[in-house]
Sequence to fold (399 residues):
Amino acid sequence: MACGTKHATRGVVTGTSVGPDVAALADRVRMARAENTTLRVVAAGTWLDAGRPCAAAEHLNVRSLSGIVDYEPGDLTLTAKAATSLDEIARVTATQGQWLPLQPMGAAEGTLGATVATASAGPLASAFGMPRDHVLGCEFVSGTGDVVRAGGRVVKNVAGFDLVRLMTGAWGTLGVLTEITVRLRALPEQDLTLVVPLPTRGGADSVQVAWSWLRQSDYTPLAAELLSASLAQGLDVASEPCLLVRLGGNVSFVRAAEGDAATIGDLRRIDSNIWKRLAVQEPAPSIVMRFSTLPSRIPSLWALVSDACERAGGYAHATISRGVVRCVLPASTDAAANSLLGEMLVGLATGYTAVGERLPATAWDALARTRLTNPLARGVRRAFDPDHIMNAHILGVTS
Fold:
């Protein structure tokens, strides 16, 4: 659907056109609204400790909304219920030589709905984009109990208001996703991963070499991820900071790209399963912050954040071409977390942005609280959840 149209096509669905599970879900939301009961959307529950504390009186369990609804390999599109795991989608599409290249941080048992609702992405985002670039259509139950459909099951659906992108990254504050249609890609003929050590003594300079290669190379990798020393050691790929490079394509392309990557430094091939291991490396519980800047400034941001993480007993990794550094720290007392986060935020110069992913409840005070005061944002929230019963406060103060 195209963004910027002046009117909204809400696509409210009624009667027998929805399944019994969705109809029951809509009834539950309408009842909660009538009783002024706030709801926390839960499926697999892998994101319950993420986002700001949610002021919800009850859980709205949508785990039953699971399974592939429609798969058209010839169109490279798939529709699944929101609680379908990414692992199931990967298994089904692999049989047709296709995949959904999202692979966010976390276990593959995480659901498609949570991935889209939180707009979560992993290292592949640098080549394939964020969830909003993969989602073609969706169905959701709004905070008023209406069943709404947006987008479609074809790539060229461009009519109406862009509800699909509104729902992507809304964290369930506009409604609960029940069904999602995504665009797939062909699996690469060859999928090769390389590790390139970046000696600590090189500091930001070695990271600059990696960034310069990514910017100037004719061979765009599927992913390129910096790992701090402790993370590299924990994954048993290096004893010092390193760069993981994932190459995909036909054999001749991958061979040429591998030769080009050798200009960064000494490299070796490793098992591509490393990306799945990286995704689940975070201890539970943990404290996770995400820092971002212009990709050209990633060397200096990396030097600051990765060093702080290492000193605190944690680790960092960075998607260079997106200018994003994730800092993962061991869970500790709220006071300790506040102190450390405050120190890191003070140390960051203008031009860097800090976002909390997983924090102790009181640690959110170390960050500026989000206030959804933009008139357009307030209007959208009023249209779909006027009483703020869905995932209340998870995006910050909404008054």
Observations:
- Residues 292 and 324 are 4 Å apart (CA to CA).
- The first strand starts at residue 12 and ends at 13.
- The chain is about 30% helix and 25% strand.
